[in-house]
């Protein structure tokens, strides 16, 4: 069994994950929520907890696949995550990166993927003042 451990001042909280959890890449604080992204069973994984590590919701976005690497809160109060779409076979020359937007309840608002030559994936996302996004 794998556990996710939260540290908050002198208190520690654990959350058991009964799956192939590959770790969290980034966590952000939004109000009283912690929003974390990573990989679970080789899928984009996002976990929303309260400030005491009690899960509000956890979602895998298996249509995107592989791993969420970065996450931000956008100007509308929704979330946008980016990362690796698929792990290409050794003989493949194309991999993909993807971006997904979802609301505070974890419902998908939109998503996109983009194939790139070589072994590439998105490692960061930021929102510009005109509300567009830059993915790197």
Architecture overview:
It is a single chain. The protein is mostly beta strands and 136 residues long. It has no helices and twelve strands. The protein has strands at 2-8, 11-17, 21-30, 33-40, 43-50, 55-61, 67-73, 79-84, 94-102, 108-117, 125-127, 133-135. The chain has a four-stranded antiparallel β-sheet, with no helix packed on it. A four-stranded antiparallel β-sheet has the order 7-8-9-10, with no helix packed on it. The chain has a two-stranded antiparallel sheet with strand order 1-2. The radius of gyration is 15 Å and the shape is globular. The N and C termini lie far apart (34 Å).
Question: Briefly, what is this?
Answer:
By secondary structure, the chain is mainly beta. The protein is 0% helix and 62% strand.
Structural features:
mainly beta, 4-stranded antiparallel beta sheet, 136 residues, 0% helix
Mean pLDDT: 76
CA radius of gyration: 15 Å
Oligomer: single chain
The major pleated sheet works out as:
4 strands, antiparallel
Distance between the termini: 34 Å
Largest sheet strand order: 3-4-5-6
Helical segment count: 0
Poorly predicted runs are: 7-13
Secondary-structure class: mainly beta
Coarse morphology: globular
Helix content: under 10%
Count of beta strands: 12
Strand content: over 45%
Order of helices and strands: EEEEEEEEEEEE
Note the topology.
Blueprint: E1 2-8, E2 11-17, E3 21-30, E4 33-40, E5 43-50, E6 55-61, E7 67-73, E8 79-84, E9 94-102, E10 108-117, E11 125-127, E12 133-135
Antiparallel strand pairs: 1-2, 3-4, 4-5, 5-6, 7-8, 8-9, 9-10, 11-12
